[in-house]
Amino acid sequence: MHTKPKNTDAALMEKQSFDVTSIKADFPIFAQEINGHRLVYLDSAASSQKPQAVIDAIDRFYSTDNANIHRGLHALAERATSAYEHSRTKVAKFLGGVNREEVIFTSGTTAGINLLSYSLGEQIIKAGDEILITEMEHHANLVPWVMLAKRKNAVLKRIPLTRDGRLDLTKVNGLLNSRTKIVALTHMSNVLGTINPRTEIAEAAHKKGAVVVVDGAQAAPHMPVNVKELDADFYAFSAHKVLGPTGVGILYGKRELLESLPPFMTGGEMIREVNFDNVTWNEVPHKFEAGTPHIAGAITFETAIDYLEQIGMENIRQHEIELTEYAIEKLLQIEGLEIQGPLDSSIRGSAISFTVPDIHPHDISTFLDSKGIAIRAGHHCAQPLMRALGKVATARASFYLYNDESDVDALVEALTEMKKYFRI
Ligand code: PLP
């Protein structure tokens, strides 16, 4: 596997040593051609590619260690259980060093937020209470709260955006009051790239006694995350966006909150004692992990984090800042191309949404695909945001540790050719 120094203070040396060619060589998917061109994968915000180490770890689990966890007393069951629990400890460290009991394995960000919209929602939301979200949420951090508000006759409010795609912080205090029980917001927008100032919002929310839920699906893959510093009460993200497998993710929750919440799903393994007329719950985190989980997924989640940590999350963030600056500069040279979201790389991630006048984003995507370039086009599971932007859809190029300037150049060259093709 590719090896890199962890964070050191020799920032310049690290910058020079961020060797995308050697990183890319760890990802077998790049060995192929798409439509006669080298694969330029600019859709990591939808799902990241997987290094050979993760693919091998999945193979190894099913080849040598496969068994159910927390139940059997035989060697394979103990091996699988210990690897699963080891991965929980790894994720706890990845989130800035929280307690391992505060990490619940889920099937992904969507599952984590749905869990909260029921467990937390049923417990603390009453008619007339308020839930505050933002105008830039992915449907995963929006629809569960819409449905909760409907179930409980509660009020859903939203923080609006500034013209350059940041949260309008001047509105936050006016939107919070003693009825606000939950504030749910994304750490980084999957459309605008905006990194939100959660700490300030968390502080204001906590002053009103609200619980803060952070959707970390886009931030966790790209920057160091410390949930204690963010003062998030809950933080959810998905393994498949951090080089890991699909169908697994985590929900972090402050221990005292997790202990006080009722379970969401019930069944095997989440119980302490079962009678026909009464059931008591297992301790956290097991109370929230009913049934057989995605064991191979959870175990190889650790391999993915190991890979990222060998390179260093700080180094990945720095690499993406430079690549984003380069991409924004080059893209804006294309006449008429408009970028949605802030242009300042210090407050944004590497997902860049754009439109080109008179060419539908779906046509942009199809044209780019003919050149071997994978982007995402559509509403990006953020229809209310699209409406606020006055767009039906955008094209989105999103970069990760295996992308470099040659990928940006390929994108810009193909977009230039596309404009000629469409005679625009
Ligand atoms: N939140 C954000 C900001 C996302 O970008 C995504 C996926 O793109 C999700 C939540 C949902 O993640 P998952 O589909 O892995 O549950």
Structural notes for this entry:
With 424 residues, the chain is an alpha/beta fold. It has 2 domains: 9-50 and 312-421, Aspartate Aminotransferase, domain 1 (Alpha-Beta Complex); 55-309, Type I PLP-dependent aspartate aminotransferase-like (Major domain) (Aspartate Aminotransferase, domain 2, 3-Layer(aba) Sandwich), CATH 3.40.640. It is 39% helix and 16% strand. It has 15 helices and 17 strands. The strands form 5 sheets. A 7-stranded mixed β-sheet has the order 4-10-9-8-7-5-6, sandwiched between helices. A 4-stranded antiparallel β-sheet has the order 13-14-17-16, with helices on one face. Strands 1-2 form a two-stranded antiparallel sheet. α3 packs antiparallel against α11, α5 (109-124) runs parallel beside α6 and α12 packs parallel to α15. It starts with 10 loop residues before the first helix and ends with a helix. Residues 1-15 have low confidence and may be disordered. The chain binds pyridoxal-5'-phosphate. Pyridoxal-5'-phosphate binds at residues 108-110, 138, 140-141, 186, 190, 215, 217-218, 238.
